[in-house]
Amino acid sequence: MRNKFDKQLEVLNKDLIEMGALCENAIDCAVRALLDHDLEVADEAIAIEEEINQVERDIETLCLKLLLKQQPVATDLRLISSALKMITDMERIGDQAADIAEIVMHTEIRGGYNIEHLKKMTKCVSKMVTESVDAFVGRNLDLARDVIARDDEVDALFIAINNDLIKYIKEDTENASTALDLLMVVKYLERIGDHAVNIGEWVEFSITGTHRKNVNLKR
Questions:
Q1: What is the per-residue pLDDT for 188?
Q2: What DSSP letter does each residue of 89-118 carry, written as one string?
Q3: SS3 state of residue 71
Q4: What is the reported pLDDT for 170?
Q5: Are 141 and 204 in contact (CB under 8 A)?
Q6: Alpha carbon separation from 101 to 23, 46, 109, 125 (Å, rounded)
Q7: In angstroms, rounded to a whole number, what is the distance separating the alpha carbons of residues 113 and 49?
Q8: Predicted local distance difference test score (pLDDT) of residue 111
Q9: Is 213 exposed, middle or buried (0-12, 13-18, 19+ CB in 10 A)?
């Protein structure tokens, strides 16, 4: 019985890694589409969202089967419960990447905007998503806490981009509409970072039995 359970956990880990990779690809495609004004790549990001939704459904089905058939307790229960929470955040990451892609449909960045902070923020949140899933699969508490701590870096980049956008508008008021769209993009990236932090907190909980928001499923 335990052997079968362990094999199903391996499938769960594999599916989570796949979902995390899809989230990373969706973020990359969405921002690349914005920077290059590439509508085909934007469509690709939107299509990836559907794949993310499907993997979420598959993982949810597997977790419910494990809960109903195996009736896990203690660490195993925390593991599966955390996975169910994580996929909700990952699904929302896919949604927000698609939202960025939709902004691309009516936004083209004019010359004069410094894109370096935007690129850095994208790279940061993508890495947070990937490493939060890696932390779960590898049962790596230090890595999970590193993801959580990196929220400060995302916040700092958000402020830096806000300052960039103010300068962008001052240089030419015709940039104002584009700046507002870019601000929405940055808000979505910030939310993606928040979801990665949530995932890191659920990884921490799955290992320690203690959640920073006082959730307790120790049993």
A1: 97
A2: HHHHHHHHHHHHHHHHTT--PPTT---HHH
A3: coil
A4: 93
A5: yes
A6: 13, 7, 14, 16
A7: 28
A8: 77
A9: exposed
Low-confidence ranges of the chain (pLDDT < 70): 1, 214-219
Give the contacts of 205 (CB within 8 A, at least 6 positions apart).
78, 82, 211, 215, 217
Output the six-digit token pair for 192: 């993606």
Q: Taking the mean position of all CA atoms in its chain, how far away is CA 90?
A: 5
Which residues in 199-212 are b (16+ Cβ under 10 Å) and which e?
Answer: bbbbbbbbbebebe
Q: In the prediction, which pLDDT does 73 show?
A: 83
The answer for residues whose C-beta is within 8 angstroms of residue 125's C-beta and 6 or more apart is: 27, 154, 189, 192, 193, 196
Residue 86 CA to residue 81 CA, distance in Å, equals: 9
pLDDT at residue 214, as a whole number: 66
The pLDDT, as a whole number, for residue 215 is 57
Distance CA 151, CA 212 (A): 15
DSSP assigned state of 131: H
> Going by C-beta distance under 8 Å and a sequence separation of 6 or more, which residues neighbour residue 85?
198, 202
Secondary structure, 3-state, 17-63: HHHHHHHHHHHHHHHHHHHHCCHHHHHHHHHHHHHHHHHHHHHHHHH
